[in-house]
Every structure is written in C-alpha cells, then in structure tokens.
Amino acid sequence: MRKKKKILVVEDEAHLAKGLKFNLEREGYDIVVVDNGQRALDALAKDNFDLVILDLMLPKLGGLEVARQIRAGDIRFPILMLSAKSTDKDREIGLEAGADDYLTKPFHLPELLLRVKGILRRWEWYRQPVLDHEKFHFDSMWIDFSTGQARGQSGEFYLTTKEAQVMKLLVGKKGAVVSREELLEKVWGYDPDTETRTVDNFVARLRKYFEKKPQKPEFIVTVREKGYQFIAKDSA
Length: 236
Ligand code: CA
Known about the structure:
Number of strands: 12
CATH architecture of the largest domain: 3-Layer(aba) Sandwich
Radius of gyration: 18 Å
Strand order of the largest sheet: 2-1-3-4-5
Bound molecules: calcium ion
C-alpha cells in the first residue's frame, strides 16, 4: 500500500481547520493542523510534508511571509494558499511568494479536494529525478532544482515554483520539443482559466533570466506551431 500523503493545514479559524482536517482525512490524507505561521515553520522543520494548505491571514507570522520563508530554502513541496482576499493582484502576490495555487474563501469543499489532488499529482513528477543530478549546469549558468536557486545572465536568484517546474520539464527533455499543452498539463493542471498565453508569458520571463538576448533566444527556443525546445549542453 502506498504511503499516505501528509498535509500541513495552517489555519487559525478553528471551525474551518476542523472541517478541513475531517474531510481531508476522509479522503485518505494524513493531516497536521497548526494555527499560526510560526508553528507552521516549526512543523515543517521537524517533519516532511507533501503539501501545505496555508491561510493568508494568520496571527504571529502571515501566510505570505511563511510562503517566502519556505521558498527561500526548499521548493520540493507545494503550497495551496487560502484567502478571503480575491483580487487578481492578491492572487498574483500569493503566487509570487511561492504558492502553487490559490483558493478564495469561502470555497466549496469539492473544489478544494480537487485542487489538492491536482497539485499532488503535478508535484509527483517534479520530485522524480529527471536528471542525474539536481543541479544542472549550462553555458556559464546553473539551476538547482532542489532549492529553486539559479544563476542566470545577471547573477544568482530564486526561481518561483512554476518557473522551476517549467525549466525542469524543458531541461529534462532537452533537445526535444515540449508542447504548450504538455507544459499546461504538467505545471498548471489544465486550469480552465489558464490559457496557452500563460505558458508564453512564463517563457518570456525565463528568457530574461537565462538568455543573453531574450529576443534572440539560443537556449529556450520556439518551435513554430509545436512548442518550446531547450537546447544546451550540460556543462557540469
Ligand atoms: Ca485567518
């Protein structure tokens, strides 16, 4: 039997936390609940989790700060952010801080369960080593897929989780064409509000990091009508 997936629920509204625990356990997950940001970081330091469900508004340490601290060290597990805030800007800030997905309160339970399932499935492949080593070198640059840290054309920085996932998919299949549809399915999970243009926007960002001339890419190239292709010799 496969090991139960372990989920950390960070939520200070007691009745909501209790409801999440009950329903997620019924779906077969192992659940730990904490009610503030500091306890979340403590729990993460002690134990391995497959997913963190993180409320945005928390006492002591807010959800955004928790996400940032998690992402500064390790990106090998996903974060689903919950928030009463619902503007596109809030969503964007949450995703920039390192959340993989964002759900607005009040939400429907089936929707949450679906998101949880989708995120866990998408992360399954990210954690599988597609390369011989986690740190991939090319040209004078590198990407460490275990932490999300990278060296691009203008120095060292951290990729967001989605950026790291896109790069891992392209690098893992280097030399082959990866279609926008495959990128959407693996990284975004066919979210109905995600369009192929989202993929193009991410690729444009990645080119700014890694290409000498983003308008004339030599590593992340467009293959007309087909998708994208990563071209580079592993220089490690
Ligand atoms: Ca709250």
